[in-house]
Structures are given as structure tokens and as C-alpha cells.
Amino acid sequence: MNRSDVLIIGAGPTGLVLALWLSKLGVRVRILDKTSGPRTTSRALAVQARTLELYRQLDLAEAVVRNGHRVAAANFWVKGKPVAQLPLNRIGEGLTPYAFLEIYPQDEHERLLIDRLEDYDVTVERNTTLESFTENGDGLTAHLRLPDGEQEICQACYLAGCDGARSVVRKTLDTGFPGGTYQQIFYVADVKASGPALNGELHLDLDEADFLAVFPLGGEGRARLIGTVRDERADRAETLEFSDVSSRAIEHLNVHIEDVNWFSTYRVHHRVADHFRKGRAFLLGDAAHVHSPAGGQGMNTGIGDAINLAWKLAAVLGGAATPKLLDSYETERIAFARRLVSTTDKVFSFVTAEGRMADLLRTRLAPFVIPKMASFETSREFLFRTVSQITVNYRGMALSEGVAGHVHGGDRLPWAHDGEGDNYEPLRNPCWQVHVYGDTSDEMIAWCNEHHLPLHVFDWRPAFETAGLGRNGFYLLRPDTYVAIADNSADPKVIERYFRDHGVRPFFA
After folding, report:
1. What is the 3-state secondary structure (H, E, C) of 180-203?
2. Pairing with 276, which of 296, 323, 364, 460 sits 20 to 30 Å away (CA)?
3. Contact 71, 88 (CB under 8 A)
4. C-beta of residue 480 within 8 angstroms of C-beta of residue 54
5. How far apart are CA 24 and CA 174, in angstroms?
6. CA-CA distance, 106 to 423, in Å (whole number)?
């Protein structure tokens, strides 16, 4: 019987990122997918700043930015004319190295991840399905159906269900998936077109209750149209063609269609699984949570799940942590998923609400409010922080302790950059590490050296104060760059006690 450390079901971005992180940390993985090849069409487009920050750990961020498309502005249309613009090019200035909206279609994204995974001699096993699995003492036994129709029995220490909204893993675990389904039918069209909405920026139509957006793609005249239909056309979703929906784009956004590369319709759910873990099996990505496409959060949230789980599995499998560390995966990620589903549901419901009052809010109030909001730095910053996922945090949870400056245990480490350097450079290495901004004690230096815990001491600079970092304290950072301890002292016993209480050793690469 074939044996792996982690068996990954599903080779979308979530499963591929999980396989990459685990492989980098020395974990043996198998990743399989029921499809015959990587997708050639996709719905997910946005790669958020927080994902790009984490992608630095695998030298992926530069490739995504180089091959993707940076969106300069979002334009809002009413009655066939642009009425408001929100600049996006440097909307997150000073908050992150990636202070912009990056468009990188999921099909291209997956190909990049697959290529990088092959550098670790890991290949996606195609046309292979999981039929069942059972847990036994020290692992799992899984029954697979191979491309030739034969069955294979394999063993793994852990199993990761990254197999989408209709997850076999979730159904096998018999975990509830409460929520609902939006009444609208969504459509996606990849087109070549011309017109004012094909200028490389994002365009959204505020008219009526059907949502319509034009997302720019790389290459002149290429765009992705994403919209909804809710009238009698929704009753025949399976037979809808582009001609049934194209008139709205043409009339409302002056989009002149030259060619349609592909067109698809689908329904969207808003659901969160009751549990993200049972025993040795985990749920990630759409298998654990699905929601509206508002804000471009779905794929990025699945990638966040993968990175959160990867270092914890690697630590446990490498003997550097006790299995109780894995309990924190569900606690941390399910709380975020529930908040996200609630938020995107409210946004989408507002955008697509019907009735005279809703139309007035969208067509009269929004064009007035958006430019006002765009003129205030605090408003732009709030919007960016929310959408970019840089405010995702694990405050008040088991692995998060203390406060230093304005930074709490569980926060993402704030980015601080000036002419003298970038405090994120050491984060390229996915390991436990300590950051000190200012001075520290000889005891801290000696303890970190003795325990092979990287210590980075930055001379105090105004940029650190601006970022909210505390002076002369320390920050213990997890391998996924979130703050485990924020403390105003220079006492290594605080770190020693933390590792002892959580059953973790700092070195496991």
C-alpha cells in the first residue's frame, strides 16, 4: 500500500498551495484530482495583498505580479455613463509591499502552482477519485479509483479535503454545511471587446438589481464579464447563452463584443461547514466555506486555510509539536470564514437589492458617496484593509498572547518600510522567529542562539513607530508570519513558557 504523510484531495489553488508549503517543509504529499487536467477557464481573478505577502515564502509573489494585471481604478456607471471613480493603484500605500489590486486568472494561477510543485518532484495525479476513507489509530486508509478503473488502497497520516463545494471528504465526515443559495444566476464570460470600459480598469454597473462588472485581463481588449440574472431567464439557467445577457453590457457599459472565448453560468451559495476538522481529516477552501464573489475573497481565503494548516501539520509530523497544535486550525479559520460569509452576503445583498429605495441608493447616493469616500485617506485605507485580508487576525485565540505597541498577539505583523530596509525580508523563511525593534537583552540573544530560533534586531526607526510596532519589546512570529507573542519585555522565559505550554519546539525544518 502506498503511504504518504498527507493525502490531498483536490488540485485547485487551495490544494496546490497546501502541497507546495508542505513540500517546502519536507512533508511527503500526494495530491489527486478527479479532472483530466488543470482548468482552462476560471471565475477567481483577484489575488489579494495578504496572499502575495505569504507567497513571498515560496518566491511566488514576483511571478504573480509580473504575469498578472494591476488595476489602476474602479469605475461606477449609471445610465450608460461613468459617474464615480475610486483610484486603486496605490490604495494601500504604506501598509504592504502590494498596495494595489492584482488580477491573475485562476487558470494561469494554477499552472504556475503546478509548475512550482513539480520542482519538488510532486505531480498531480489526474482522473483519480477518492471513494472512501477510514481512520485507524495512527493514520487513515483511503480507497482511490484510478484512471484505468482499478482501485488502490493507500495510507496517510492526515487527509486534506480541498475538493470543492460538493466535497466527498465533507460528506464522508458527515459535517453539516448550513447556509443558503442566492436566487440569482451568475454568469461569467471571457471576451475580446472594445469601448471605454476596456481601458484596463475595473467597471461596475449600478443600474437595476442585476449585478454586472467588467474585470480587465492581460492583453489588449480582453476582459472578464461577471453578472447576474434574476428574471424569467434564471428559470432556464442551464440553457442560457451569452446572447441572452450580452445586451445589458452593451447598453449599460458601452461594451462592444468582438469575440466570446467562453461563457458559463452557475449558482452561488453562502455556507460554512459546522466543522473544519474531524480526527485526522481537514476541510479547506470551498469544501469548508462558500460565499458570494463580492470582494474577490474566495480563492484567497482557501489559500489562507492552506497556509494556516501547512506549518502546523509539518510541525506535528516532524516531531516539533504535539498533535494538539492541530486543534487551532479549525478555531482560527472557522471564525474568519463565518465573518467573511456574513460580510460578503451583506455587500452582495445591497448591490442586488430590488425596489425603488434600493435603486435610489445605488444610482443616486452611491455616485455621491464614492468620490467623497475616495477623497479621504482613512476611507481608502479602511476599504483596502478589509478587502486585502491584511486585517485577518487570530486575536484572543489559543496561540495568541500579549500586546506590544499597537500590535496584539494574533495580528499580522505590520509592514514597515523606509529607505533603510524592509522588516518583511526575514519572513521569506517559513519558520518561527523573533523580531525586536530597538534593543534587546543579552539573555534573549543567548537563548535564541541556544534554541536555534532566528532573532532579528532592527535599529529603531520612525517607520516602526508609524507602523504601530513597540520599541525594545519582542514579537515571536509563527511560520505563517502571524504574531504569536507580543511582549514589552526582553525576557526569553516568556517564549520558553509559550513553547512549553503549547507543546511546540521552534525548529522543525
Report:
1. EECCCEEEEEEEEEECCCCCCCEE
2. 296
3. yes
4. yes
5. 32
6. 30
Within 13 Å of residue 247, how many CA atoms lie on the same side as its CB? 3
Separation in Å, CA 103 to CA 11, 142, 152: 21, 37, 39
Give the whole-angstrom CA distance, residue 224 versus residue 215. 5
Give the CA count within 13 Å in the CB-facing half-sphere of 476: 26
Per-residue pLDDT tens, the chain, 509 aa: give them.
589 999 999 999 999 999 999 999 999 999 999 999 888 777 789 999 999 999 999 999 999 999 999 999 999 888 888 888 888 988 999 999 999 999 999 999 999 999 999 999 999 999 999 999 999 988 999 999 999 999 999 999 999 999 999 999 999 999 999 998 877 788 899 999 999 999 999 998 887 656 788 999 988 899 999 888 877 776 776 788 888 888 877 888 889 999 999 999 888 888 999 999 999 999 999 999 998 776 678 899 999 999 999 999 999 999 999 999 999 999 999 999 998 888 776 666 666 666 666 666 666 677 777 777 766 777 788 889 888 999 999 999 999 999 999 999 999 999 999 888 899 999 999 999 999 999 999 999 999 999 999 999 999 999 999 999 999 999 999 999 999 999 999 999 999 999 999 999 886 44
Pinpoint the alpha helices (H) of 6-146.
13-24, 49-55, 61-67, 106-118
Cα separation, 113 vs 22, whole angstroms: 13
94/462 Cα distance (integer angstroms): 13
Structural domains in the chain plus CATH codes: 2-35+46-63+104-176+272-343 (3.50.50.60), 69-103+183-267+353-391 (3.30.9.10), 401-502 (3.40.30.120)
> What is the Cα–Cα distance from 410 to 315, expressed in whole angstroms?
19
CA torsion 206-210-211-212 (nearest 10°) is: -90
C-beta separation of 98 from 417 below 8 A: no
Q: What is the pTM of this model?
A: 0.94
Host H or E run for residue 381: helix 377-388
Q: Could you tell me if 241 and 381 are in contact, meaning their C-beta atoms sit under 8 angstroms apart?
A: no
Q: Which of 340, 341, 281 is nearest to 309 (CA)?
A: 281
